[in-house]
């Protein structure tokens, strides 16, 4: 998900003001950054490099991800909004009851509970998107305790198992690179991991592949079911 330089700048500005510092004194605490550079950050004209991002986040009492994207709940809600726009949910009558402004907030909160249950984090952008799509499909198509709903239910559970397996075998490590970011750039947040003692990559790959093949077979079964229903 793209980093909004202006929103990052606003958060940097808020941290600085909360500390009661002017731009010159704030810069001195961030690797002796010149006040003109601090001004560019706050105006969203550029982003700090990795070292300075970490320093700003530390003195602000937040994580680097929160500095870049805001609090995690707002970050997820932004993803939900983006999916609605990309998939046309906002303009589709079939999804009106969910995307209506009066109901949207409650549904977002429900999906965010799933996000927390699956222990997703900022780096799990694609997983959060897929989870939202599955959740909205369940809600709209009357998925509870129906044949169609069982497919969505199982896919969600398999996805949960898949990423739970990753965390079982590996200690996650998040890597950010914003060194030369300028307005319009997309900052990549990649996931890496350190194998846990007693666990190995070969076994992880075999078990992950088993889950992947199960998901594929489930999708094939769903397609057969839908074709027979027509």
Can you offer a commentary on this structure?
There is one protein chain. The chain starts with a helix and ends with a helix. The chain is mainly alpha-helical and 230 residues long. It has two domains: 5-69, Orthogonal Bundle (434 Repressor (Amino-terminal Domain)); 72-229, no CATH class. The protein is built from eleven helices and two strands; from the N terminus they run ααααααααααββα. The protein is flat. α2 crosses α3 (35-42) and α10 runs antiparallel to α11 (201-229). It has helices at residues 5-18, 23-29, 35-42, 50-60, 64-69, 72-87, 96-99, 101-117, 125-140, 147-169, 201-229, and strands spanning 170-176, 189-195. It has a two-stranded antiparallel ribbon with strand order 1-2. One of its GO terms (molecular function) is DNA binding. Residues 12-67 form the HTH cro/C1-type domain.
Listing every helix as H and every strand as E from the N terminus to the C terminus, the arrangement reads: HHHHHHHHHHEEH
Strand content: 5-15%
Shape: flat
Instruction: Work out the helix count.
Output: 11
Q: pLDDT average, as an integer?
A: 85
pLDDT < 50 stretches: 175-191
Rounded to an integer in angstroms, the radius of gyration calculated over CA atoms is 21 Å
Helix content: 55-70%
The count of DSSP E runs of length 2 or more, i.e. the number of strands, is: 2
Straight-line N-to-C gap: 38 Å
Strand arrangement within the widest β-sheet reads: 1-2
User: Strand pairing plus helix content: what structural class?
Assistant: mainly alpha
Structural domain tally: 2
Main sheet properties: 2 strands, antiparallel
InterPro entries: Cro/C1-type_HTH, Lambda_DNA-bd_dom_sf
Organism: Trichococcus flocculiformis
Domain HTH cro/C1-type: 12-67
GO molecular function: DNA binding
